[in-house]
Design goal:
The complex is a heterodimer of chains A (256) and B (297). Chain A is built from 10 helices and 11 strands. Chain A has 256 residues and is an alpha/beta fold. By secondary structure, chain B is mainly alpha-helical. Chain B has one domain: MetI-like (MetI-like fold), CATH 1.10.3720.10. Chain B is 79% helix and 1% strand. In chain B, strand 1 and strand 2 form a beta hairpin. Classes of the chains: A alpha/beta (256), B mainly alpha (297). Chains A and B meet through helix 2, strand 7, helix 3 and helix 6 of A and helix 8, helix 9 and helix 13 of B. Bound molecules: adenosine-5'-diphosphate (ADP) and magnesium ion. The site of adenosine-5'-diphosphate has 12 residues of chain A, from strand 2 and helix 1.
């Protein structure tokens, strides 16, 4: 079914928020260097699933997790506490609303590099910042005001800055949680284009609640419903020949 | 219909009157202090009063230098103790403490902030004064009665803790989760995230909290009055007795009010307190506005 290698695989993943059972026996495979869309109605657990991949769920006291998540064949839950940052570094996260860090545009992109003590020479750092800002198509818009606070950018620009910040630490995976939902159509289109470009070098996991976006972008689709994986497979299969009645209803627009 | 409009009008006017009344009050206090401190300034220049070192009203000497030094020392040492300890514990409570501990600590700290200062003063008098006298001062090789600048500063720091902690926790909690996640997801550790993101995003509110703490420390009267020794002389060490501006007024207003020049001198002290607090507040608003522009997220 999957031609390429598997980047992320979950086995019987269960997640509880306190007593609230959010993810139920999730078994999925996410192929490397492709764009996988996680679709499903609001509240079905998409964000929760996405944040389980880089162990971000665990910053909440009340979360309980069981099962396995393999990234590049390694169970991420085997890692001890002080290795968690290394797991997270493998995966960039783009949130629903862009959150630039409270610092300059330049510092935002430099943030991860400085933390991992990469490109420590000033010239190297400058070049890297330029490179990543070019990657997200932001360089020309900000090159004259790199040291302005990032909060002065438009929302669409901020989202691309967040992308630049994420890819600056050279992750393997980019996790996007409805990255266009706060953006105007033009800014959303820019992000979509970027994601299509980025999937050549990165595994992209895109949570989206707009079906059309999934159709436009996805190679592989996972349909989540009430915390359960109802259907998964190559995008054409899921969209053209859905098997499960719930999937059919969702794709027809009967449930949303 | 008409009635509603009338009510709306009356409501608006009432609010305006209330606001005007409060502003006027503020202005009246200022004018009163200014006016009443005029007498002492007739025979003594403001410069002399601020910088000469003998406070002896019976001899018509009104040098405030020792008292100003006392105030700066007590407030400064108190903040020096209070700021790092408060920030560390606020970070712990907001970011590290398990949820259950947090739920107990939060209201507890708010209660501490509301304890009347005379209670702190009494505790300091009973426990901190002997401790300073018998243990701390001898440890530094100094003799002290325990009634001194150091004791006053420590109790002041204790009183300022809950204010700074409470406000800082609030501002740390206000940092959006997504901002922390953004930092963690590039592989930052928790401490790096706290230091570079949470702390930075809260900088304006932390500054505001510290300024509020300063205001409290600077104006605190009764607790200090109980443990500072009340001697308006330039202190030779932090274990010497001293006096602060606010405490001076509290201890002297009874005996001094009968002689007009003395009363006027105390009014001048009050005016200085008033102006400093005013200036710091305006400064605070200024810094806050600048910091906000820089650190918005
Ligand atoms: N921090 C949390 N505490 C308690 N329940 C949560 C928390 N986050 C999410 N949930 C619950 O988990 C379920 C799935 O949420 P989420 O993953 O955000 O769904 P989606 O992203 O698909 O809209 C929801 O029912 C939500 O109420
Ligand atoms: Mg979501």
């Amino acid at each position: 079914m999957l031609s390429s290698t598997i980047q992320i695989e979950t086995k019987n993943l269960n997640v509880y928020f306190d007593k609230h059972y959010v993810l139920k026996d999730v078994n999925i495979k996410i192929p490397a260097k492709q764009l996988t869309a996680i679709i499903g109605p609001s509240g079905c657990g998409k964000t929760t699933l996405l944040k389980s991949f880089n162990r971000l769920l665990e910053i909440h006291d009340e979360v309980k997790i069981s099962g396995n998540i393999f990234v590049d064949g390694q169970d991420i839950f085997d890692s001890k506490g002080d290795e968690i940052p290394d797991i997270r570094k493998k995966m960039g996260l783009i949130s629903q609303k862009p959150y630039p860090l409270p610092m300059s545009i330049y510092e935002n992109v430099a943030y991860g590099l400085k933390i991992h003590r990469k490109k420590t020479k000033k010239g190297e750092l400058d070049a890297a910042i330029q490179h990543y800002l070019q990657e997200v198509g932001l360089w020309n818009e900000v090159k004259d005001r790199l040291h302005d606070p990032a909060s002065r950018l438009s929302v669409g620009q901020q989202q691309r800055l967040c992308l630049a910040r994420a890819i600056a630490v050279e992750p393997e995976v980019i996790l996007c949680d409805e990255p266009t939902s706060a953006l105007d159509p033009i800014a959303a289109q820019q992000i979509e284009k970027l994601l299509l470009k980025l999937k050549q070098n990165y595994t992209v996991v895109l949570v989206t609640h707009t079906l059309r976006q999934a159709k436009r972008l996805a190679d592989y689709v996972i349909f989540l419903y009430f915390g359960m994986v109802i259907e998964q497979g190559p995008a054409e299969d899921v969209f053209n020949n859905p098997k499960n009645p719930a999937t059919i209803a969702y794709i027809k627009g009967d449930i949303s | 219909m008409n009635k509603r409009k009338l009510r709306d009008l009356i409501g608006t006017k009432l609010m305006l009157i209330a606001t005007l009344f409060v502003s006027l009050l503020f202005f009246l206090i200022f004018v009163l202090l200014l006016f009443r401190s005029g007498l002492v300034l007739q025979d003594n220049s403001l410069f002399d009063i601020l910088f000469s070192s003998t406070w002896n009203p019976d001899n018509s000497q009104f040098g405030l230098a020792p008292i100003i030094i006392g105030t700066i020392l007590v407030t400064g040492i108190a903040l020096l103790i209070a700021i790092p300890i408060s920030l560390l514990s606020a970070i712990y409570i907001a970011e590290y403490a398990p949820w259950k501990i947090r739920r107990i600590l939060r209201p507890f700290i708010d209660v501490l902030a509301g304890v009347p200062s005379v209670v702190y003063g009494l505790c300091a008098f009973l426990f901190l004064v002997p401790l300073t006298k018998d243990v701390i001062a001898p440890w530094f090789g100094v003799q002290s009665t325990g009634l001194c600048i150091f004791t006053a500063a420590v109790i002041l720091a204790v009183m300022v803790f809950p204010i700074i902690i409470s406000l800082c926790i609030e501002s740390f909690n206000a940092v959006p989760l997504a901002l922390k996640e953004a930092s963690l997801s590039v592989g930052a550790t928790k401490w790096e995230t706290v230091k570079k993101v949470v702390f930075r995003a809260s900088t304006p509110s932390v500054i505001a909290a510290i300024l509020l703490g300063f205001g409290r420390a600077f104006g605190e009267t009764i607790a200090i009055n109980m443990v500072i020794g009340g001697i308006p002389r330039i202190p030779s060490s932090v274990f010497s007795p001293g006096e602060t501006l606010a405490s001076l007024i509290a201890s002297k207003y009874g005996e001094l009010m009968s002689i007009p020049v003395h009363e006027s001198a105390l009014m001048l002290v009050a005016l200085i307190l008033f102006v400093v607090v005013l200036v710091f507040n305006i400064l605070g608003v200024f810094i806050l506005r600048r910091a906000k522009r820089r650190w918005t997220y």
